[in-house]
Amino acid sequence: MRASRAAPGAAAPAAGIDRASIAAAHGVIRPYIRRTPVIEIDGGDFGLGPLRLFLKLEFMQHAGSFKARGAFANLLLRDVPAAGVVAASGGNHGVAVAYAAMRLGKSARIFVPSIASPAKMARIHECGAELVVGGKRYADALVASEEWARASGALRVHAFDQRETLLGQGSVALEFEEQVPQLDTLLVAVGGGGLIGGIAAWHAGAVRIVGVEPEAAPTLTRALACGRPVDAEAGGIAADSLAPKQVGALMFPIAQRYVERVILVTDAAIQEAQQMLWNTLRIVTEPGGAAACAALLLGQYRPRADERVGVLLCGGNTTAVDFGARTPTL
Q1: pTM of the shown model
Q2: Which of 11, 96, 155, 221 is surrounded by the fewest CB atoms within 10 Å?
Q3: Which of 319, 293, 298 shows the shortest CA–CA distance to 56?
C-alpha cells in the first residue's frame, strides 16, 4: 500500500467522513444491501495487454445502482419524521430512496427532471413513491424538493452532499478492498461526487483514485481548477446521472486531497464502452455506469503492465436492451 499523496494546500476533509465512520455505517446498512460481485478480466479481452482488471458489478445492487447504500444510510442513521422523506434526483438516487423507503415502511416523494430516463421513473413508481416530474435538469428538481421539504417537514435525502450519503457510498470501497485487497488504481465515475468522495475517504491515499466524468458535465474538473465547487455544464448522454451543476461541498476537500486526477470522456466513448461491455461480457450498463470503463477501454487511462486496476460499474437502470427483439441490441 502506498503512503497518502495529499495535495499540497488541500483543505482538511470534513470531520466524520473517514474510514472508521464508513465501517460503522456499513455495519448498519449491511442487512439491507447486496455485496455485489467482482470479476477479474484478462486485459487482453479488451486489447489492453496483460493487465489485471477487476470489475465490481455495482449495477447489480438493489435499485440498480450504488445509490442504495447512501439511501439506506440516510434512512437508518437519521430520524425520519412522520412526513417521510423527500429527494431530488436525475433518476438513480430517486430509485434508491424510493426503494429504501419501501423496505423500511416510510413514505417518499421524489422529484426528477424531465431528462430522467423512463426506466428510472418506472422503478420509482414501482417502489410506491410519489413521483414529481418537472424542470429540465437536476438543479430544478432540487429546488422543488427543498420547497416541498420546507412545506411538509419531510427529511431531505441529498443525492451527494450529505454526510450519511458519503458514508453509505464509501461502503462500496470497503467491500471492494475485502474482495481485492491489493488494488493499485480505482477508476470511478463522477457526478455530484458522493461516490468518489466516499471511496476516496475510505482509501485516504492508499490507492490511486482516478475520477472519470463526461466532457459535457465537467463538474469536478472545473471545481479542482478553481479551488472550489463552481457551476459547470450539465449535459451529455449521462446527464440523468452524472450532471449536477456543482460537486458537493462535503466531498470537495476529500477530492482535493485524495483524487489523483480526473479524466474527461466523450459521449461517443461512453457509448463505445457500453457496446464493448456487452460484446465481451454481456454486461448492460447505463451510460453513467460505463463512464469509468470508457477511460480505460478507449485508452485515456493507460495502466502499467503490472498494475492492478479496479473499475466500478456503478449503474444499470436502462432500457437499452430490447428483449422483445430476436437479438438484444444496445
Answers
A1: 0.91
A2: 11
A3: 293
